[in-house]
C-alpha cells in the first residue's frame, strides 16, 4: 500500500512539475505585459491561465507550441523591455516598432539564439545596443534600429 501511494504521489508531482514548466514562455510574456501600459487593450487576450500563449493575439507559435514570433508593431504600448524576454528560447521575430518602448535594451536578448528579426525602431529607447546581440548569428534584420535614438541624442546635446 505504501509503495502504491509513493508511486501515485511521485507521478502526481512529476505531472504538476511538467504543467508548471509548460507555460514558461507564457509566464515571460505575461510578465512583460504587466510591465507595459496598454491603453488600446491589444493585449487583452494574454491570459496566463491558458495552457500556453499560442492562442493569444499577436503571438505566433511553431507546430511544437514554442513561441517564435511576437508581433506588436504600432500597438500603442509603452514601458520597458524586461530582461526575462531573453528566456524565449525559440523566438525568431520580435516586432515592437512604432510604440513608446522606453529604457534600454536588455543584454539578455543576446540569449535569443534563434532570433532573425528585431524591429525596435520608432520607440523611446536609450543606451547602447547590447554587445550580446552581436553574438546572435541568426540575427539578420535590425531595421533602422536607432533612427529615433540618433535624433534623441542630437536633441540632448
TrEMBL record:
<dbReference type="Pfam" id="PF00560">
    <property type="entry name" value="LRR_1"/>
</dbReference>
<feature type="domain" description="Leucine-rich repeat-containing N-terminal plant-type">
    <location>
        <begin position="24"/>
        <end position="62"/>
    </location>
</feature>
<keyword id="KW-0677">Repeat</keyword>
<dbReference type="GO" id="GO:0016020">
    <property type="term" value="C:membrane"/>
</dbReference>
<dbReference type="InterPro" id="IPR032675">
    <property type="entry name" value="LRR_dom_sf"/>
</dbReference>
<keyword id="KW-0472">Membrane</keyword>
<keyword id="KW-0732">Signal</keyword>
<protein>
    <recommendedName>
        <fullName>Leucine-rich repeat-containing N-terminal plant-type domain-containing protein</fullName>
    </recommendedName>
</protein>
<keyword id="KW-0433">Leucine-rich repeat</keyword>
<feature type="signal peptide">
    <location>
        <begin position="1"/>
        <end position="22"/>
    </location>
</feature>
<dbReference type="Pfam" id="PF08263">
    <property type="entry name" value="LRRNT_2"/>
</dbReference>
<dbReference type="InterPro" id="IPR001611">
    <property type="entry name" value="Leu-rich_rpt"/>
</dbReference>
<dbReference type="InterPro" id="IPR013210">
    <property type="entry name" value="LRR_N_plant-typ"/>
</dbReference>
<keyword id="KW-0812">Transmembrane</keyword>
<keyword id="KW-1133">Transmembrane helix</keyword>
Amino acid at each position: 500500500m505504501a509503495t502504491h501511494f509513493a508511486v501515485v504521489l511521485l507521478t502526481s508531482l512529476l505531472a504538476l512539475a511538467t504543467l508548471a514548466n509548460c507555460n514558461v514562455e507564457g509566464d515571460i510574456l505575461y510578465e512583460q505585459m504587466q510591465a507595459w501600459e496598454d491603453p488600446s487593450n491589444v493585449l487583452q487576450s494574454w491570459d496566463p491561465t491558458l495552457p500556453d500563449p499560442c492562442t493569444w493575439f499577436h503571438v505566433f507559435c511553431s507546430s511544437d507550441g514554442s513561441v517564435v514570433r511576437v508581433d506588436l508593431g504600432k500597438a500603442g504600448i509603452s514601458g520597458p523591455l524586461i530582461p526575462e524576454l531573453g528566456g524565449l528560447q525559440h523566438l525568431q521575430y520580435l516586432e515592437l516598432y512604432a510604440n513608446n518602448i522606453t529604457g534600454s535594451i536588455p543584454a539578455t536578448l543576446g540569449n535569443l539564439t534563434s532570433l532573425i528579426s528585431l524591429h525596435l525602431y520608432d520607440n523611446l529607447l536609450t543606451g547602447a545596443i547590447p554587445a550580446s546581440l552581436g553574438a546572435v548569428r541568426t540575427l539578420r534584420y535590425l531595421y533602422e534600429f536607432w533612427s529615433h535614438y540618433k535624433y534623441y541624442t542630437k536633441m540632448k546635446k
